[in-house]
# Entry
Amino acid sequence: MKKSRTLLQSGLIIAPIAAFAVSFLHGMALSIALLLIAIPTVLISALIPRRIPFAVRIVLYSVIGSLVYMPAAVLTANIVPQIAGGIYIPLLCTPLYLTVHRDDLFPHGHVLRSMIRHLIPACLFILAVGVIREILGSGSIIGHSLISAPPLPILLEPSGGLILLVIGLAACSANSRKEATDANRL
Amino acid sequence: MQIASDFVLLFVQNIIFQNLLGLPSAADTIQKGKGLLRLGVLTVLFCTIGSGALAVIRPLIPNRYEKLLFPLGIALICGILDLLLVLICRFSKRLNRIIMPVLHSAAFSSAVLGAVLLSTDYTHDIAVAFRFGFRTGLGYFIACLMLKAAVPLLYSDAMPKSIRGWKGMLLYAALLSMAAACLFP
# Structure
């Protein structure tokens, strides 16, 4: 359970979520972009032989990630045309350069399965953050007004998003620890 | 006057981490336990050279595809600089010990990518791009110093277990960012 959240728990995709996922549509754009960038990048990067020195491999990973980013950005803009990705969509590439070689994250031979285990929880988490921030921060959901006076407009700021993320991740950690304790007891 | 306005801009734009851009690499480095200041210094280097070099090659990139091709340009520039530094480190054991543990985290960090992308929105001029990159990098370094000062407390028993360590650091960064937003509305 803990392993399936490692990409999130590592803190590497925190910035785009905290700064960009301020509504359901923003969260959806970020989730789609993450899937479209991460899956091809990790799959193609897995083909690079491990005997090549890491210093060279990481440069190749970054080139692959930036090449994959181009069609991914175009597709994301077509799927969610209301949202402009700005600088935050390309920022989703950088965590992959630093993690794609890690066997604990993407074990050799099980890359696709491990990606599903990492990316699905991450995308759901991003969507949940977007929905919570939209409801509490702007009092609406997908543009439809729910509350006339939003209770926490600070959540629309990066700092508010960061606080929400820390609370979410702390809850995840606490849950993981509880599950581990329960498993040990059994 | 220019220097004073530069410093104000530096703080407005960078406390903390220019819209949290550099937070992931700082969180990653803090999890490894050390090297935050080295990460800051290397980020200054990569931001400065990355912004300037991209401004140099920008006229060669077709206008229509600029936004799509910038990340590739940045990856190539930072990749070449990263490989050069790796080669330099081979000749010195001391440099190897100091630089290598954080080199790749700095070269391929979202701080550098974000700063260089922002510089493309800010200017077309090569000299201004170099200065913008340096300023952003310097702001990142100052932010690293502020985080470094708080690290011992963030890892102490005084912090609740669920947010001890890098999650506490995120919370601290959020509070600093909120304070900065109040200071520079």
About this structure: The radius of gyration of chain B is 17 Å. The CA atoms of residues 21 and 114 of chain B lie 6 Å apart. Chain B touches chain A through 49 residues (CB under 8 Å). Confidence is low (pLDDT under 50) at residues 1-19 of chain B.
